[in-house]
Amino acid sequence: MKKRFIGKLEVSPIGMGCMGFSHGYGKIPEKQYSIEAIRKAYAFGCTFFDTAEVYGNELYWEGHNEEILGEAVESFRKNIVIATKLHIHDEEVTPNMDLYHLIKSHLEKSLKRLRTDYVDLYYLHRVNEFVPVEDVAYVMGKLIDEGLIKGWGLSQVDVDTLDKAHRVTPVTAVQNLYNILERDCDDEIFPYCIEKNIGVVPFSPIASGFLSGKITAKTEFEKVDDVRKFVPQLTKENIEGNQPIVNILQNYAKKKKATPAQISLAWMLKKYPNVVPIPGSKNQERIIENLSAWDIELTDEEFYELQSALDKCEIYGHRGIVETQQKIFSNHWKK
């Protein structure tokens, strides 16, 4: 396993998205199972763990996910990189607000839940249309100077927003939606980030499980707290339309003695040097399977053949990367 860099942060080439332990994929596991899953991932070699202050659901509280991660990693915290995310609530935005103290108060609560005195990577979860991103960038710079965070990032943004922020305080990472079915970042985000030494951290790199080949048009998602019901590619019609892509991945999986999910991650790692995907799962076996993709290396010939085959496929369903806080949360998204 060769380590990668997100800005100056050294991490395993694949990280772990922890959201599923608190929210998003139906019934959550027992707390001890989740803690054990995180510790097994670390023992396997994962050194990059992603959470957010809002990860919870109707049954659990804001900060639930941070608390689980904090307890799980406390004994080896100094050996890993922790990323969490700031959500500025609309009701907190007032004409006379002190943005520095507002953001710092959020961070301090996250630090307490994570059982640490610093966060390696602190994202703005979504751009709030009423808070200039340049102002957030300035505050993040002050928090870096104070040693409370090592770097900062943005999630679900286009290159214009990224550039505005980067000009104020250099951005460490962009966490955008990116996978074989969602490749908007190819156009401008990756070129900009490579030029500026910014890491790209794709969430949903296996397209909410679709690229694993385990989801079919007959798949029934859980009725309560399952974001997959809102994923454009996971309507029955789009699942059927995108099946040729899964077939291609399955063919390569057989050749490489891997799984389709691992091939989709290996494709991503081969494509860009600054990419560190964070697949999320609440299943311990799937977590280790996903991390194992860092041992699967596509040759140049295999990559170009795979890329060529994928480029010939029409993609059905599109979510995109430009999402403001108002849009994303009004539509029940939290990732």
Quick take:
By secondary structure, the chain is of the alpha/beta class. Helices cover 38% and strands 10% of the residues.
The CATH architecture assignment turns out to be: Alpha-Beta Barrel
Rg over C-alpha atoms, rounded to the nearest angstrom = 19 Å
Question: Please, what is the average pLDDT?
Answer: 93
In angstroms, what separates the terminal alpha carbons? 27 Å
Q: What is the CATH superfamily classification? A: NADP-dependent oxidoreductase domain
Detail the poorly predicted runs. 328-335
Helix content: 25-40%
Total number of beta strands: 9
The CATH class = Alpha Beta
What is the number of helices? 12
Assign an overall shape. Answer: globular
CATH topology: TIM Barrel
The largest sheet, given as strand count, sense and whether it forms a barrel, is:
7 strands, parallel
Number of domains: 1
Question: What letter string, H or E per element, gives the SSE order?
Answer: EEEHEHEHEHEHEHEHHHHHH
Keywords: Oxidoreductase
Domain NADP-dependent oxidoreductase: 13-309
Protein name: Aldo/keto reductase
GO molecular function: oxidoreductase activity
